[in-house]
Amino acid sequence: MLESTLRPFFQRTCINPVANIAANFTHPNAITLFSFITGLIAAIFLSLEHNFLAVIFLLLSGYLDILDGSVARLNNQSSQMGTIFDILSDRMVESFIVIALVVREPELAFIALLMMMSMLVCVSSFLLVGIFSEAQQKSSQKSFYYSPGLMERAEAFIFFILMILFPLLSFTLGVIFTVLVLWTTLYRVYEFSGYVKEMEITNKDVQS
To answer: Which domain holds residue 46?
Structure first.
């Protein structure tokens, strides 16, 4: 949700100027690696209860995660392996943070499992919809669009930061996080089902 509203302004003011400089001396995969490392450092600080340092490094990890794609596009270095590396890095950083929350507060173990479950289901739905929508597009000229939903990476980071800074609210925030991620998953599948039905009607009309 924030991606579609705040991302253009953030991209223009905070990412593009740095990307124009970074593109001259670094590879996007190297930036992705630093995003992974800073995310891991954030999790380590969190597990040691250095909450503010954890937030700073988590924000840096998120910033680098946006920067790597911008540098890749500027240098025409976008690749399938880079995309895989980026997605795996993102999911590992998120997992590290959830695990670190449990290390800091063992009583969060149950809600952390629910958060992990919701993240796994959400990512699976994203990948499956991407695969099947691509297959649908091969038989039609119509492009596929689905709503990004309430929970994307920016929203997830907001929840992580709040859980880091306000331990007493961690359980409640974890429950809300899980519900919103699952809602995003269900809505994505619902919207895709509507798209499939529309495509089936269109194909029948074309064949007739």
So the answer is: 2-207
Using one digit for the tens of pLDDT, what is the confidence trace for 85-131? 999 999 999 999 999 999 999 999 999 999 999 999 998 988 888 77
Which pairs with CB-CB distance under 8 Å and at least 24 residues apart come from 72-77? 72/28, 74/19, 74/20, 74/23, 75/23, 75/28, 77/27, 77/28
Nearest to 191 by CA among 150, 124, 145, 155: 145
User: Could you count the other beta carbons within 10 Å of the beta carbon of residue 32?
Assistant: 25
Token output for 198: 């529309």
CATH number for position 16? 1.20.120.1760
Q: What is the spatial distance between Cα 93 and Cα 201, in angstroms, rounded to a whole number?
A: 42
Q: What's the confidence (pLDDT) of residue 142?
A: 38
pTM of the model: 0.86
Total structural domains in the chain?
1
Rounded CA separation 1/158 (Å): 12
The pLDDT value recorded for residue 144 is 41
pLDDT at residue number 135: 57
